[in-house]
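Hi support team,

I submitted a single chain yesterday and got back a structure, but I'm not sure I'm reading the token output correctly. Could someone confirm the output below corresponds to the sequence I sent? I've pasted both exactly as they appear in my results page.

Thanks,
R.
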Amino acid sequence: MDGIWRSDVIPEREQFASWRDACCRHVYAVTPERPARGPFRGRIVARRFGGADVAALSCEGHRVERSREDIARAPTDTYYLYCQGTGAAWFRQRDRELVAESGDLVVADPDIPFSTSASGDFDFRIWRVSRRVLDPLLRTPGSLMMTRLSRRHGVGALAAGYLATLADELDHIEAGAMDAVMQNAMRLVALAIGATPDLHEIGREA
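Hi R., thanks for writing in. Yes, this is the structure output for that exact sequence:
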């Protein structure tokens, strides 16, 4: 699914509608909203790596919702790992609200409705990883509520830092190592949000 979408090659009157279509194609089916009309600035660079998709997105701030209707139209068999770049973004999923600041990682199930917005521009990377890969590592598979992992401390900081470095090094990792590299990333994420006892035992042995 490698690809690039840029607003500056789209006619101004079509830019925001085209942005929505690009998000649905490269990320998830969502409903973006903004009060302003006219031109819209945004860019998406999407890559495939080791059984996962990663997309870097930057755009003007606006509100985004993944509604029940969006989910029904395009359900997914993935979880997402949202890596905040510059600035900050807020999220709401059911009764849970959180703010992701620069460097933070947000892990969530996209088939539970949520909404998000940015305090300024959006600037983030989002990894889509198969449930089949992450679920076996989790203490409570299949019930992953939105969780923020701080860049500041603990295993969450290791996971966020690992994914940030990995995104920068995609072009320098041999194809034969991709799956193992992603598996290491998933183990760190699982340890940070609640891993199985077996995974903790593997960590102690290591």
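A quick pointer for reading it: The first helix runs from residue 15 to 26. Let us know if anything else looks off.

Best,
Support desk
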